[in-house]
Design a protein that fits this description.
It is built from 4 helices and 28 strands. The strands form 7 sheets. The protein has a 5-stranded antiparallel beta sheet, with no helix packed on it. The chain is elongated. Helices cover about 15% and strands about 45% of the residues. The N and C termini lie far apart (about 120 Å). The protein has helices at about 5-20, 25-35, 275-285, 290-315; strands at about 45-50, 60-65, 70-75, 80-85, 90-100, 105-110, 115-120, 130, 135-140, 145-150, 155-160, 165-170, 175-180, 190-195, 200-205, 205-210, 215-225, 230-235, 240-245, 320-325, 330-335, 340-350, 360-365, 370-375, 380-385, 390-400, 405-415, 420-425. It is an alpha+beta fold.
């Protein structure tokens, strides 16, 4: 510590009292205290405990205190003497410890210079230090890692050597940070109190629960209270005490706030072991890959050729229900109603052209005369206006006693053209037989 800082830390209390007095009172104050011995008074900034020789629940612990004079003390639990004294480069505001005082321990402090310092047993000076990027609002140790609440609305996790592991953004400023009792079911969880009166519980970087309080929670702790092992005690800014008991059968689910792939996506699949058949097939594909590809291409080209031929044939014979050509574009569809032996056949014809009006058309029906009898063989269509569907009905009677079914063909012809414009094949349903009572 520089000499100027040392003098200021000694005289700060006298200076404050002297500056608040009038001139006459100041002279009397100086005359009274001018022969008083100088005492180095300080203020404790952070407290925590460290197990002495055993880490069992209820074991004896040593008291750790960080002071305004940048000192860290470890006190004996019985004689209340100073066991270890360490110095800090800056004023500590948060402190946490792990290990055993008589064996090996690690002490971590967060200071006002926005740095985190780590001490090991036998070292009076910090062994490691790193800067999290903002002023610390809370510091807890979760396992071997450090979870720090920062003033930039962020909860971050670091290793003791300063390696960044993860960070979580928060909706508001942090009021305080505490750890949940490792002995409970919600082990190694971090509780974060926010300025919007929320208390959030995080397991690793996942939010598992949110508690809404009536006021800003400035202090909280979790542990055993009476017969209950999981009790959360909170103190609000107005001095209100809130006690909440964790149910013994409660379970928490880890949910990430940032949208992304589901958690099941990271689960490894139970892939079966490779069999001899798989290995032989793989070897065959490697050795005969070229010939297999050529055979596949040949089959693909054959399929495309057959498809093209069928399409050209349907256009040449007008077998498609919708066709473009012969001076226009037409669409034909049919609907059969009835269960037999009498059917009502409705044929819908539509002119798909935009402006051209079709005239002098007719519908021609073709059927097996041994099975069916139709009222009309030809239906005249004098005109088809574009974008309007015209419906024409024809009665069909099934002549077969066994109710056999067949195809009725409908052709759309234009006068003077023997080739049909559109052809529709209508599959007639099986006719119900007539029952005489």
């Amino acid at each position: 510590m520089p000499l100027s800082d040392f003098v200021i830390s000694i005289l700060v209390m006298f200076i404050f009292r002297l500056l608040n007095l009038s001139l006459e009172d100041a002279l009397s104050f100086v005359s009274v205290f001018k022969h008083s011995p100088l005492k180095r008074e300080t203020v404790v900034t952070a407290l925590t405990t460290l197990h002495k020789d055993r880490s069992e629940p209820g074991a004896v612990s040593c008291l750790l205190a960080a002071t305004e004079n940048r000192d860290i003390f470890v006190f004996d639990p019985q004689a209340f003497t100073i066991l270890v004294k360490m110095s800090s480069p800056a004023i500590p505001v948060f402190i946490c410890a792990s290990g055993l005082c008589d064996v090996q321990y690690t002490i971590t402090v967060a200071c006002r210079d926005a740095f985190i310092y780590t001490y090991k047993k036998g070292n009076t000076e910090p062994k490691h230090h790193f800067a999290p990027g903002s002023q610390a609002c809370g510091l807890v140790r979760v396992g071997k890692n450090l979870v720090i609440g920062l003033a930039n609305k962020t909860l971050v996790c670091y290793t003791p050597r300063g390696k960044h592991l993860w960070s979580v953004g928060l909706p508001d400023l942090i009021a305080t940070v505490a750890i949940m009792d490792p002995q409970s079911k919600m082990s190694q969880a971090v509780m974060v109190s926010l300025k919007n009166s929320e208390v959030r519980i995080y397991k690793n970087k996942y939010l598992v629960n949110t508690i809404k309080a009536d006021d800003v929670v400035v202090g909280l702790t979790f542990g055993q209270f009476g017969r209950e092992d999981g009790v959360l005690a909170m103190v609000t800014q107005t001095g209100c005490l809130i006690i909440k008991i964790l149910k013994r059968i409660v379970t928490f689910e880890e949910k990430e706030l940032i949208p992304g792939p589901p958690q099941a996506q990271s689960t490894k699949l139970n892939v079966p072991k490779k069999t001899k058949l798989f290995a032989s097939s793989t070897m065959r594909e490697r050795e005969m890959g070229t010939s297999m590809h050529q055979l596949f291409q040949k089959d693909l080209f054959s399929l495309r050729l057959d498809t093209s031929r069928s399409y050209v044939k349907s256009l040449a014979t007008s077998m498609a229900p919708m066709v473009t050509g012969h001076g226009g574009s037409y669409k034909i569809s049919a609907q059969v109603q009835g269960i037999g032996p009498l059917f009502n056949l409705t044929v819908a014809v539509e002119n798909l052209s935009q402006k051209q009006v079709a005239m002098n058309l007719c519908l021609v029906f073709q059927w097996d005369e041994s099975l069916y009898c139709l009222d009309k063989k030809i239906i005249q269509i004098p005109m088809l206006i574009p974008s309007i569907q015209y419906k024409y009905k024809n009665n069909v009677e099934c002549l077969d006693d066994n109710g056999q079914s067949d195809i009725i063909k409908v052709y759309l012809h234009s006068h003077g053209n023997p080739v049909p414009l559109v052809t529709a094949n209508i599959n007639m349903p099986i006719s119900e037989s007539v029952v005489f009572v």
